[in-house]
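ok trying again, last paste got cut off:
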Amino acid sequence: MSTFLRNLRPLADSSQEYGVTIALEVYGDLMSTGRMAADVIGTIDHPAVRMIYDTANCKTYGGIWAHENDDLPCAIPLLANLHLKDELGGEEDLHFPPIGEGNVDFAGVLSTLEWGDYRGPLSIEIEYDNGVWPDRDVIDSGVSPSVAHIRTLLTAAGASAHGE
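nice, full thing came through this time. structure:
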């Protein structure tokens, strides 16, 4: 980790000069949860270094769900972006289906983001087999229901926030 930190500092300084943010994703061994990523980013302690939280990677690589164990709440102040990604399987069986077809509690995730007053970008991420891009029809058949599912949850959350 010391080499990583040593190399990142000059990059962060240069990035800041150009108004660029370096966003490190919750992924792998070093930053497999939001809490671990927050610790790494806290060690770096540079305003140009932020976090991309991934709602499936925290489970796949860190063994915890985003809305549990204060993992997402501790990440919110450091977020540059949040990947909405669903998960089926686990570390041995990587499967990231369209949103709403897996095990991630997106209502819980969105509620946590509302609680933390997160107003930054959200992106939908779907991973396909072996990193090979499928035909556009296959992509559309995954993206369209994912967007619809998130919109439904956001609409429901908005109604609850207004006491409806």
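cool. The CA atoms of residues 10 and 16 lie 10 Å apart. The two ends are 49 Å apart (CA to CA).
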